[in-house]
Amino acid sequence: MNDIRAMIKERGLKLESVAKALQITNNTLSRKLNGEVEFRLCEAKTLAALLDTSVDALFFGDLGDQKENMIDAINTRLKKAAPDKVQLVWIFASGIIKA
Q: Which pLDDT band holds residue 99 (cuts at 50, 70, 90)?
């Protein structure tokens, strides 16, 4: 969660204003940033919007490379698959991976 603190600081925000935007106390925000308490989904979405990033990037780092690698692996396997199975596999995979 130190990365989140750094992002808050980089954007010139104060912890007090972030806590207010999340509708939580300063103490609760501190506990969440220290990993003592988990963020609720609505808080994570608000925090990501405040920091101009995604929830995924905020908590899990940039997943863009992982998605690209997974899409490339699927495409490689699809090239080897029987044509009648390609469409079914791609529909399934595209539902899992939101590009």
A: very low
Using CB atoms within 10 Å of the CB of residue 84, give its burial: 0 to 12 exposed, 13 to 18 middle, 19+ buried.
exposed
Eight-class DSSP state of 37: S
For 23, which DSSP code?
T
Give me the chain's average pLDDT, please. Answer: 80
In whole angstroms, what is the distance from residue 8 CA to residue 28 CA?
16
Residue 54: its pLDDT value, please?
87
When pLDDT is cut at 50, 70 and 90, the band that residue 82 belongs to is low
CB-based contacts of 90: which residues, under 8 Å, 6+ apart? Answer: 74, 78
Are 70 and 97 spatial neighbours (Cβ–Cβ below 8 Å)? yes
- Rounded (5°) CA angle 67-71-76: 150
Question: Residue 94 is which amino acid?
Answer: S
